[in-house]
Amino acid sequence: MYGTVARLDVKPGKFEELQKWAEDHPMPDSPGAVAGYAFRMDDDANEGYLVVVFESEDAYKTNAERPETDREFRKMMQWLESEPEWHDGNVVWAEQVS
């Protein structure tokens, strides 16, 4: 598995709008997507982290190059102060607790 952890600097007062938009754009529309998580930090209500996992590095990069992905990214930017800090890499451990 492969994915990214992205730090988001959300515009003040816009986190709920960003969250609503994200909820309206489910990951199953992204081929090869396995999981996605979003965090809002306790220390700073305008700081968020996005974790997205794909079945492979190829699936991740193919998704990143899709015009649909770029279009949605550009929409997301309206709620952010700056471009996300992307940290891509291989998933080396995962555990799902049921």
Structural description of this entry:
With 98 residues, this protein is of the alpha+beta class. Helices cover 28% and strands 31% of the residues. The longest helix is centred in the last third of the chain and has 10 residues. The chain has a single domain, classed as Alpha-Beta Plaits (2-Layer Sandwich). It contains three helices and four strands; from the N terminus they run βαββααβ.
Sum up the structure in keywords:
four-stranded antiparallel β-sheet, alpha+beta, 98 residues, globular
How many strands in all?
Answer: 4
Looking at the structure, the CATH topology is: Alpha-Beta Plaits
Largest sheet: 4 strands, antiparallel
Low-confidence stretches: none
Strand content: 25-35%
Helix % is 25-40%
The average pLDDT is 93
Structural class determined from secondary elements = alpha+beta
Shape: globular
The CATH architecture term is: 2-Layer Sandwich
Number of domains: 1
SS element count, helices: 3
As a whole number of angstroms, the C-alpha radius of gyration is: 14 Å
N-to-C CA distance: 20 Å
Q: How would the blueprint of this fold be written?
A:
Layout (H helix, E strand, L loop, with lengths): L1 E8 L5 H9 L9 E8 L6 E8 L2 H8 L2 H10 L8 E6 L8
Antiparallel strand pairs: 1-3, 1-4, 2-3
Short description:
By secondary structure, the chain is α+β, with helices and mostly antiparallel strands.
